Automatic annotation (TrEMBL):
It comes from Paraglomus occultum. The keyword Coiled coil applies. It is found in: Cytoplasm, Cytoskeleton. Its main location: cytoplasm. GO terms for biological process: post-chaperonin tubulin folding pathway; tubulin complex assembly. It holds the Pfam family TBCA. Keywords: Chaperone, Coiled coil, Cytoplasm, Cytoskeleton, Microtubule. The keyword Coiled coil applies. Supercomplex made of cofactors A to E. Cofactors A and D function by capturing and stabilizing tubulin in a quasi-native conformation. Cofactor E binds to the cofactor D-tubulin complex; interaction with cofactor C then causes the release of tubulin polypeptides that are committed to the native state. This is Tubulin-specific chaperone A.
Length: 99
């Protein structure tokens, strides 16, 4: 697997992680709105189930991101000849920004 591919994996997992965090906030607002509007209890219950599923995804996604970051770092460590390339610099910047 190439360095570029590993970088793309980290970027994708980072985007997924951010998405779930935003979705969690949006879902909570949706539930609060439903409660405020006195919506049917079934609808509120279903939205709470969606919230719970989103909450479960966050730790999983963060674990996958952490693992991908470690794999990227390991790949960089095992391929010192890549130092100085644009991809290597990109990988370094991504890892630095995610820590």
């Amino acid at each position: 697997m190439s360095l570029k591919h590993k970088i793309d994996i980290v970027k994708r997992l980072h985007a997924d992680s951010k998405y779930y965090e935003i979705e969690l906030q949006n879902q909570q607002r949706r539930i609060d709105k439903y409660i405020e509007e006195n919506r049917d209890e079934y609808d509120i219950k279903k939205q709470k189930e969606v919230l719970e599923e989103t909450q479960k995804m966050i730790p999983d996604c963060k674990n996958r991101l952490q693992k991908a970051c470690q794999e990227l770092q390991d790949y960089m460590d095992m391929n010192p000849a890549l130092k100085g390339t644009a991809e290597y610099t990109t990988a370094e910047n991504i890892l630095k920004n995610l820590k």
